[in-house]
Each structure stands twice: as C-alpha cells, then as structure tokens.
Structure prediction request, 624 residues.
Amino acid sequence: MGEEDLHQLIRGCIKQDRKCQKMLYKAFYGFSMGICLRYAGNRDEAAEVMNQGFFKVFTHIESYDITRPFKAWLGKIMMNVSIDFYRANLKMAYTEDLEKAEHVSDGDVVDKNLHYNDLLAMVQKLPQAYRTVFNLFAIDGYSHEEIATMLNINVGTSKSNLHKARQKLKLMILKADSSANNANYNNGMNYNTSIVAINATNINGVFFNKGIWE
Amino acid sequence: MNNENDNGLDDLFKKKLEDPVGQIGYDEEDWDALEQMLDKRTKRKGLIFWLPIISSAAAVLLLVLGWWNFRTKTDQQHQQIRLQAVNHHQKSNTDTIGGLGRQALTQNPAQTPTQKNPANYAVTPNVNKGSKISNSLLVAGGASHATTSVTETGQKDTTINRADEPLLAANFTTVFTPEQITAQQVSPVDLQKKYPAVLNAVTHITKNPAAFRPVYALSVLAAPDVNGVGSFQQGKVGTNAGLLFTAGVSKKFTISTGVLYSDKPYLTPFENYHTSYQFQQNPINVSATCRMLDIPLNIGYQIYNKHQNKLSIGTGLSSYIMLQQDFKFNYADPYAKGPSDFNVPNSSGYFFGILNLNATYERQINSKVGITLQPYLKLPLTNIGYSEVRLQTTGVAVGLSWNLNSLSKH
Prediction:
C-alpha cells in the first residue's frame, strides 16, 4: 500500500468511515495478528487482543501523527494491548519452573528447519510470564530494564524468565527435531486442531499450577 | 558459548516471527467481532451525547412543574389568608351588627355555594386595599350598610370568575358556624380595640404573601483561574467566561446550569503525559493549552440571607467539551530530536467528569441586579484530554446576576 493510499485510509478512519476502517484492518491484519499471536496463548486470544488494539486505533486515530510511520505506531499499540492482557491475567501467569528444562544441553538448535507455525506454537506453549519477556527481549529488542518497567517486575525476574523461556524453547526444538519425520506442516493458519489440543494442556497446567511440559 | 547459543535461538525466533508475511490468513469473523465493538461504542457515544440534553430538559421540565405547583399553592394560600382576615373582620362586624348581622350570616350555611360567595367577594377587596379598611370597619357598624354591601356584590357575582368557589365555600362553612357566632359576646367598644389586630393581620398578609416563590436568575460570569495537574505547584492562569442560569427550587436550594468558554493552560512534568507515541528522547515537561466548553450542573444551598447579602455553598458536576488542545514539548537537551509541539483539534467530551465545589456571595444592588463573587474548585474524576491528565482548577468567578422574576407580574 502506497503512502498516499494509507493517508487517505487514515483520513477516512478519522471520519469514522466504516469502509476505510475495514480496509485498514484488512491491510494490517497479518502484521497485527503476527504480533498478538506471539504474545497470546492461542489464536482466539490473539484475535481478541488484536481487536482490542484495532478498537484503540479507530477510537484514537486522530491522535496519530501522520508524519510518523503508521506501522510502528500500530505495532506499539498491539504490543501494549498484549501487555495489558498479560497484566490482566497476571495471576494465571505464575508458573513454577520445571527443573527438567534447566539442564538442556547446548546443542545447535539454530539450523533446524523449523517453520513459522512450529516456532509460533512453541512460543505460545510457554507460560505467559516467560512468553511476554521472551517476546519483548528476543523479538522486540527491549532491554531487561525496560521490560522490568513495562511489566512492573524486577530486572532479576525478567532475566530469570528469559532464561527459563529459552530453556523450554530449546527443549521443544530438540523434541520437534526427533519427531520431524512425522511432522505434517500445513500452510497458512490451518493448524488449529493440533494447537488447540496443545493449548488445552497448557491452560490446564497453568491453572492448576503444575508443570506444563510432559 | 552459552551466550552465542542463546543469541542464535533468539535470532531464529526473531527472523521467523517478527514479520510473518503471508503466514496469516484474514478471517472475516474477526472483523465482524470488531465491528460489533465499534457499533456498541457508537450507540453508547450517542447516548452519552444526548444525556446532558435529556437531563437538562428533564431539569427544566421539573423546574416548570415545580414552579407551577408552587404558584398554584401560593394562590390558594393567598385566598385562604385573605379569607381568614375577612373572617376576623366579619366577626367584628357581626358583633357590632348584632341581630341583623347574625341573622344574615347564620343563613349562610344553609345557602348554596353560589349564595355564600357574595359575602366573601364583598369584603376581599377591602383587605387588598388597606386604605379602605378603616372605612369599611367603621361603616360596618351600620347594619344597613353591611346588608347593602352583601346584596350589591351578590348581584355582581355573576360577572366574577368563580374558579375558586369550592375552596371559599369550604372555608366559609367552618368559620361562619352559627355556634361560633352566637357564642361570642363582644361589646361595640371592643371593635376599637380589635381594629389594630385586624390591621396587623392584613399588613402581615401583604408583607408575607407566600411561603416560597421560585426565583430565576441569569448570570454573566468571568473568572481567572489557576490550572495544574495533580497540584497547583506549577499552576498557570487561565480564563473563563460564560452564562449561567439559576433556578431556586426551594427557599434554600438552587439548581444552576449554563455554558462557560474556558481557556486552560497548564504545565506538567512528562510523567503525567500519557501517549502511545514513543519519544526518542523524553521531554522534561509538557506545556499545554486546552480550549473547551464547561457545562456545569450544580446545586446550591443558602446558608445566609440577610438584607441584601446572600451566602451559599454549592457542588455539582461539570462536563468538558474539548475544542482544541495544543501541546508543546520542552526538552532538557536543546538539540534533542523529537516533536516540539502537537495539536489535537477535536470535540471530544468528558461528561460529568469534573466535581465542582464552590461558595457564592451575592449582593443585591437593586431588586433586579446583583453582583456575585464565587471562589471555586474543580476536581477531576476522570483523566481529561488527549494527554489524559488529572487537570484541576481553582479560581474566583466574578459576575452580574439578573433576576428574571422582575419580568413576570405576579
């Protein structure tokens, strides 16, 4: 989408024109959903958070400074609503770490031929507290100090959560490798069935304050 | 080694998850859900927009009905008081008149309401016109005159509006019972002694015509005030001007509403400024100017009212309708990169988001015009403006109030 087209859409959104809102939504659906999926535990949760983000965008569109990149502004809002969601579910987020994950050998996990959906599923399987810190640090590039302020936690907690998140992800990658031959990759978003099953375990694990892995 | 491995892991996820182009398919159901949210908001916004108008209309309706109710009561009270005064008067007359008067009046209870009224109408004008009272009383001593008066007005009765007929009839019956009249033993000399009492009663009526008469006033206000976020430490002076309509709903209570144009500048440390925009370098503070319409809805309670001086205290809620917001960002580093200002031209409303506390001193210059002095404090119940600050205001409003009742004839 060209700069001028985007500005025209934004002007329409300022006038609360529903068609322009839908066009903007469609144009940035993939980008926004990509952020929310990383922070959320599953697709439904991500869609809910993303819609909250777009609701904020449409109701505060007049505060958008047109000279700034829209994508960055939108991305920031999506990240903020995701963090708000994390804060709202803070009680659910505390999970005792599994010591099993502590002693993963530092095998080379980087070269594995893993697809977007696999990696996303792994991140989504992380407990919310680990996932949020991992996203902010590893993908969005925030420092532990910044994360501590954003999430209202200690710097030490942020570091610890990142470490645990990495351990868990390594474990998952290694496991994925062992079952790679049986993997059945789907394109697009058609992974709902398998993810839902995994997430069901995940939610129960978190809820009963048990380990979620194995 | 461990660090490198961690970085490798982070990079793997960052590369694949950061911008998943083409990986995520659009789902129409998600848009439907958002559209529902937006529709709900529009409806709610519509309701909020109409809320002040509906409540103002309800308040005006209430005031009109209240005024009507009071007015009707007042008229009735007038009639009753007049009647009592008349009865005093007539009792005196009856005693003086003696047999003839008694005979004439004792017939009244048996008469039809149409026949009873003439007696009232005959004397009522005398009560209103104080100067004629003495004449009336003096001549009332003459039996023949009294009868003539009754007869004459009786004849005129057909031309008089008799809307109040049942009320008068009822009073008449209780006061003019034959037993009461016959039981009284007063000599003609007593009439002279009683005269001042009657006169007092009449004077009392004219001085105190009703228990309460609703008062409407229109005020023009101008107010310098101090605005600050959180406290007034860095307060800046703003200006306000507007119109206020006040209606007295009882002897002590008033309701007032109106519109004030308000120019509120304020200075706040950057921590109080809320925005989703990410500054490369945070400013140290933000100076802002908000132009808005302030629509207050207050109630007042009068604590002092003597001579021409009135003192009352009041509270209520204000709604702000933003017209323009200008922000200026001040950086510690003069070469800092970042926006220097930001303007929000909008008309967003903050309905009933501000608590008003005030005290009003009013001095009547004459029956129509008074001057008012009103120190006030406005405390935010919600965050105000684009920057969502808790903007509080204090000031003193000076105004001229004009009593609208001086227009109406009562």
Summary: Chain A touches chain B through 54 residues (CB under 8 Å).
